[in-house]
Amino acid sequence: MERRNPSAASQPAGKVAPVGHEPAPATKPSGAPPSASPTPRAPRPKRGVPEGLWQKCDGCQQTIYRKEAEEILNVCPKCGFHWYVSAATRIEQLCDTGTFEEWDAGLRPTDPLGFRDKKPYAERLVAEQKRTGLSDAALTGTGMIRARRVACGVTDSSFIMGSMGSVVGERLTRLIERATPQKLPLIIISASGGGARMHEGILSLMQMAKVSAALARYSQAGGLFISVLTNPTMGGVAASFASLGDLCFAEPRALIGFAGPRTIKATIRVELPKGFQTSEFLLEHGFIDRIVARKDLKSEIARAIDYCSR
Ligand SMILES: [Zn+2]
To answer: Whole-angstrom Cα distance, residue 24 to residue 80?
Structure first.
């Protein structure tokens, strides 16, 4: 069976699914069965296991004690599946403690088209900001990785699928443009189930070209760009900056691709190879350079920087 956007399962319903993806399965209600009591009463506090103590692993389908996974950087202790981590946690895992300094935090998304799907985009933004604590789907800045100064950016798949709107594109572009004269190694960790953010129309689409052009100038100036693909990296993010690394690392068993498997199948009418959008398949076919487990990521990046700067 194909894995479909496993991270989506842990996200609340009501999100826009990327093209070709099945909607995330509805989360099962936890706790007691529905009450048949005819008289309406004030809701009783839930009994049993507190929410969030256990989590079903998308890799092995087993119920895992969350704390145990958290201790090993949110990796399943049973099967090694790499779970979702937020942008802030990524930075914590990647950068030396206390060294990260955020750039362009003041950029805020707007709703230039007055777009609405199930709800107005402006309302969706506020809700997402409140829920995730992020102002948009990318966090950028500078920090140290094993005492090497880097420019680093992270996208977060929990903020409107980690899709690239104007703010994500602009933050990444500015990140790259600052890294260029400062000759900083550039690390971008992608976790984007959505590609360009449809809510901003063409303004989202143009970010792909804008970020890619900034990367081209960075490359001409001799910069080293390490792109880290995590679960999931899809759509316009995969089709632009995420694929342009001098080195492309991927986490194990990550979903990486452009359109979802059902869309491709419906378009080209060919049976697709099993697991063709996984890190392992893509490594075999030369699309990525190395699969790096989360626990090794920091060291591997530091090593690559040293190797390439000789
Ligand atoms: Zn597992």
So the answer is: 22
